[in-house]
Amino acid sequence: MKFRKSFQKIHPNVWTLGFVSLLTDFGTRAIKSVLPLFLVSVLGANLSTIGLIEGIAESTASIVKLFSGALSDYWGRRKELAILGYGLSAAIIPVFALANSPFWVLVARFGDRLGKGIRVAPRNALVADTTPVSQRGAAYGLRQTLDTIGAFSGPLAATLILSIWNQNFRLVFWVALIPSILSVCLLVKGIREPTPVEEKRRNGIQWDAIQELGDGYWILMGVAILFNLGNFSDAFLLLKAQEVGIPSSLVPLSSMVMNFTYTLSAYPLGSLSDHIGRKGLLIGGFWLFSLVYLGFAFADRPAQIWGLFALYGVYLGMSQGILLALVADLSPKGLRGTAFGLINLVIGIVLLPASLFAGFLWEQVTPQAPFLVGSGLAITASLLLILKPKN
């Protein structure tokens, strides 16, 4: 009953942003799911080129998030930056469809991730601006749920298109453009930005403003850094699936299993955090992550892998939206964009060495090693989180 009431009270802006994310992720994930095959089989790219494209693209998104968040604080307007970010990602899609060399794919991925970098921090801050503290867990959980529906339905649609239209990659790109355009239209028409409170606008890039974020925020930042040092790329989970005997053709379904349980768990667990507190649930999410990684380290049968992917989705539902709600709780209203942008930047920076270290451990020590290290770091991060002041 409590979940249903909180569901009904969620601000219309959150619903709109959730459906915008659903439509956008449908398109971007459809593209991303076929892009490596397109690069190799159609454009003749090698694996090093693919790695370079993805590295540049993701680094761009991480860096831009800080500046867009700080700008949304200083400007006092978040909707316009969100429109710019989503609009850029939509506008660049035809470049994928028309690309005749890896260079143009790089341009398209750069533009797409630039758009993501522009929109993420202002969007997350906008959710906090229009949601009371008592509903933030539910609000972020709902947005994550709708986002994840797009994340697994996009690749499924791409698979169907390739099967029916004889591996027509460019058709996937053109189809992905449709929901992306719709998402921008929905954002323009559906969002009502709250009237800004008259207060001194702060430049979040300046050190004196950043210091105002407070000890609780910086402890949470330390927790995120420590945890994500062991939270390496999901590609290693897929490699483990292949290692234990899951056919290559079925490996992509593992992501669908993960996203399905993520979708089912994100909203109820986010809403639960509004009633029992966020810190305990986030700690529980870290412990579940630790157990799942231990499972991946020692799993030797396909059935075990499928179960672990399902539990991994529950971990995501238990942590992603709740972490965003904690950031919102711990940051001043005038610095929320900066707070979201900064933590996203740091996590993005940490993920690269985390994946490089995981690859080293996999090849030079044992395939079990990266999972054991990740499990241990998750437990350590949970202990640090206990030190964080109670909300």
User: Poorly predicted ranges (pLDDT <50, ≥5 residues)?
Assistant: none
Order of helices and strands: HHHHHHHHHHHHHHHHH
Oligomeric state of this protein:
single chain
- Can you count the beta strands? 0
Query: What is the CATH first-level class name?
Result: Mainly Alpha
> What name does the CATH topology carry?
Growth Hormone, Chain: A
Distance between the termini: 24 Å
Number of domains: 1
What portion of the residues fall into strands of 2 or more residues?
Answer: under 5%
Secondary structural class: mainly alpha
Could you characterize what this model shows?
- With 391 residues, the protein is mainly alpha-helical.
- 80% of the residues lie in helices and 0% in strands.
- It contains 17 helices and no strands.
- The protein has helices spanning 2-9, 12-41, 47-75, 79-91, 93-98, 102-129, 136-164, 169-190, 207-210, 215-228, 235-243, 251-276, 278-298, 302-317, 320-330, 336-364, 369-386.
- Helix 2 (12-41) runs antiparallel to helix 6 (102-129) and helix 4 runs antiparallel to helix 6 (102-129).
